[in-house]
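ok so I'm stuck.
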Amino acid sequence: MEAELSELIRFEREGSVGILRFIQPKKRNPYSIAFVEELVAHLREAERDDTIRAVIMTGGEHFSSGGDLVGFQAEIVKGARATSEMVDRVHDGGRAAYHFRKPLISAVCGVAFGAGLSLALSADVVVAAEDARLCEVFARVGGCPDTGSSWLLQQRAGAGVARMLVLTGREIDGRTAKDLRVVEECVPAEQVEDRALEIAREIGQHPMFGVQTAKRVMRATAECSYLEALDIERDSQSVLLCAHDFPEAMKAFSEKRKPEFNDQ
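replied:
not stuck anymore, here's the structure
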């Protein structure tokens, strides 16, 4: 069922799963300022909607070819300050996706280059088509990573693999991306969206307060030491142990029945 229509992104629903569908696949869904603004608006709306339990991002035939280099020229010619401000506006898309409180899944077919790949990697789980084309294209055009690529890729694949992909500008397919741990799952192209939906529904069956807290904990501990991670886990788990879901789970366990969570 369609919820909203726009020129660049359409928001759809499959039950409790929201789908952000990029709708310029013939142009390979360029990562323009207008695209970023729509993406941020849709993510904020999905975050406010308590009936949405998880969200999928997909570009259909192509996920995203990356930054709209032609469109960016109008700002670049104004000088360093205007360029810096433009890049920061572009980064708003990655910030919104990375900080999205609910589970976020990328379903990647076709190309995911540059900023498009960064956006895919900002999700919690990436499902890629076997023949998807992923590329940290920045070196090919005399640039360096932006839109979070330098950090996101190292988090998933490790520093060595990240440096190799960034410095060579090498294009890899979905199978290779899975082998290198750049993406979590790899399936035939015609199965990508269905697999993403399966994962979203699998996650969505769990109590959302716990899921969202777990996501926040995982993101926070990825950026700290082991001892700091223990403190983050302690503080968050202490809240959950006293929340409405966990006590019900413990009661159900002792009574040998299925728990009845308040948010389902």
